[in-house]
Design goal:
By secondary structure, the chain is α/β, with parallel strands linked by helices. It contains 10 helices and 8 strands. A hairpin with a 2-residue loop joins β1 and β2.
């Protein structure tokens, strides 16, 4: 089986044509089980025809997971919008990889940036039993809240304090709504802190990482923050539901 980055794939699914690329570890072994990370890029890497083919491969939000010490399967889709259809396509693509690759079903993760975050927040809330944790980067939350808490899905929200496109208040609104949902589901404050985190860094934090303008685009630096990535990957479905 071919390993490494496999580009420009097509899945003809019930929700339509899904364009995607994926990564398999070099020593991929069907006798082992691997974590699965489903990533959804922003608007500029969505599917707009042949000229956009493969444009999601040089994205930090895809590459960072392939370069971690732990081997994992990473999938990046080029969906056609950020609404209900694309959310269902994200779920269908996740289920395709669960059915056709050697995946640890307790360690299925998602990450979305900007428009991809709008899509993935819907997908994760539509089918929260699939995902152990979700990284919501520089985006607004378009999904529901109660299903996340009811299924114990962990969520890390990241938004620049001065994000020019969304504004950090949308991040805090999502955080507060998720926090309320966890409380209503009977979680203690300590339990909530284990599955719900938010970070809204100021301009100085970004300047230290070489970003002095375009804080929305600069939000991609979250994908090189090892503590954030490891927080996401530390969760399993069993632990979340215990």
């Amino acid at each position: 089986m071919k390993t490494g980055i496999i580009a420009e794939q097509i899945l003809e699914g019930e929700t339509g044509t899904i364009h995607y690329s994926y990564y398999l570890p070099e020593d991929y072994d069907t006798q082992k089980k691997y974590p699965l990370m489903m990533v959804m890029p922003g608007y500029d890497m969505m599917w707009f025809g042949g000229e956009s083919s493969g444009s999601n491969l040089d994205w930090d939000g895809f590459l960072c997971w392939t370069q971690l010490q732990e081997d994992m399967i990473v999938v990046s889709a080029q969906l056609t919008d950020w609404h209900d259809t694309s959310a269902r396509q994200a779920i269908e693509l996740t289920e395709y990889f669960l059915a056709n690759f050697s995946v640890d079903v307790s360690r299925v993760y998602a990450a979305g940036y900007s428009a991809g975050g709008e899509t993935m927040s819907q997908a994760v809330s539509m089918c929260p039993d699939l995902y152990a944790a979700y990284l919501h980067g520089a985006s607004q939350w378009d999904g529901d809240y109660a299903p996340i808490a009811e299924n114990g899905t962990a969520v890390y929200i990241f938004m620049a304090e001065h994000d020019e496109y969304y504004g950090s208040q949308r991040a805090w609104s999502a955080y507060n709504s998720l926090h309320d949902a966890y409380e209503e589901a009977g979680w203690s404050e300590e339990q909530i802190s284990n599955v719900l985190q938010i970070q809204t860094p100021n301009d100085e934090w970004f300047a230290q990482r070489g970003v002095t303008s375009n804080y929305h685009g600069g939000g991609n630096v979250v994908f090189w923050e090892d503590d954030v990535l490891n927080w996401v990957l530390s969760h399993t479905k069993e632990e979340n539901e215990s």
